[in-house]
Amino acid sequence: AAMVGLISALLLLACDSDPVMSPSPDHGISSCPAKLTDLSGLTATTHRGIIDTDMLWTAATSPHVIEENVTLSNATLTIEPCAVVLVDADVPLVADAGAHIVAEGTAAMPIVFSRHEADRWDYLLVKEAGTASLSFVTLSGGGADLITYDGATLVADGPTNRPYVQNLTVRDVT
């Protein structure tokens, strides 16, 4: 009986220390806005214009709403795993000269870019002198610009008169 009690206690300890087995706000769906289907209870953080200082867009301050064109210039925008970025109609997010967009989620903690309202947003554009690294990112509801980039949602723009310089890295991007 003592041995059964000891084994039961060890099993209970093992289960209690396993973050997958124990409910925790750090691992729950509520702490990952990118997994929510209804964002109505969250307070939006708005962005517009030129960003020329390094920024971190967190999951905790999601959704991040891009209300007007956002152009990064000589700055790094890091988008945290589980963050949600909602983009208004006909609005792009652009990485210009010296700019870097780092949106690196995981399978368990993805990043979502989507339309803010009914109409489509333009695109995420990485210009020749900018870079972007995207992992476990979903891009939906983009491609409103049917003329400039033929309705693309993700664009890596390179030079036309010399060899292309890799400025976009994608892994598990939908």
Write a structural description:
There is one protein chain. With 174 residues, the protein is mainly beta. Helices cover 9% and strands 35% of the residues. Strands 1, 2, 3, 4, 5, 6, 7, 8, 9, 10, 11 and 12 form a twelve-stranded parallel beta sheet that branches. The longest helix is centred in the N-terminal third of the chain and has 16 residues. The N terminus is likely disordered.
Which short descriptors sum up this protein?
174 residues, twelve-stranded parallel β-sheet, 12 strands, 9% helix, disordered N terminus
The fraction of residues in strands falls at 35-45%
Give helix and strand order, one letter per element, not per position: HEEEEEEEEEEEE
**Overall mean pLDDT score?**
84
Structural class of the helices, strands and pairings?
Answer: mainly beta
**Principal-axis shape:** globular
Number of helices: 1
Main pleated sheet: 12 strands, parallel
Low-confidence stretches: 1-29
CA distance, first residue to last residue: 55 Å
The count of strands amounts to 12
Indicate the percent of residues in helices: under 10%
Rg over CA atoms, rounded to whole Å, is: 20 Å
